[in-house]
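Re: that chain you flagged

S.,

Sorry for the slow reply, it's been a week of failed gels. I finally had a moment to sit down with the sequence you sent. For the record, here it is as I used it:
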Amino acid sequence: MLKEFKEFAMKGNLVDIAVGFVMGAAFNRVVTSFTGGIVSPLIGLLFDADFKDLKYVIKEGTMNDAGEMVGEVAVMYGDFITSVIDFIIVAFVMFMIVKGVNRMKKPEEPAPDPGPSEIDLLKEIRDNLKK
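Prediction finished late last night. Pasting the structure tokens below so you have them in one place:
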């Protein structure tokens, strides 16, 4: 059973998927940092607020002794929009990578036309001799 598991785990596709998953997770952290540290503040200039903190308050809360808002019900649309921007950036970069990999692949050459078969050539010779 251990031998079978080792063969399964060491298959090329599984290892490739694992490496891709780890690289994707690391890349996602970079994009999240980029969006949170660069894109959100720039877009936040339009709203004159921190973009991630934009929200629509449905029910006001009260302040507790520690100065925290308690009991507030709000729709955090700024955080959602930030996540959508993250997704678009990751999707675009993945699209560009796949496009680049496809361009690097050697294009498949179409099979050469075999031309007429021997039987067709013999028929043509026969027909020409009849003339």
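What I noticed first: Residues 2-107 form a domain with the Non-ribosomal Peptide Synthetase Peptidyl Carrier Protein; Chain A fold (CATH 1.10.1200.120).

Talk soon,
D.
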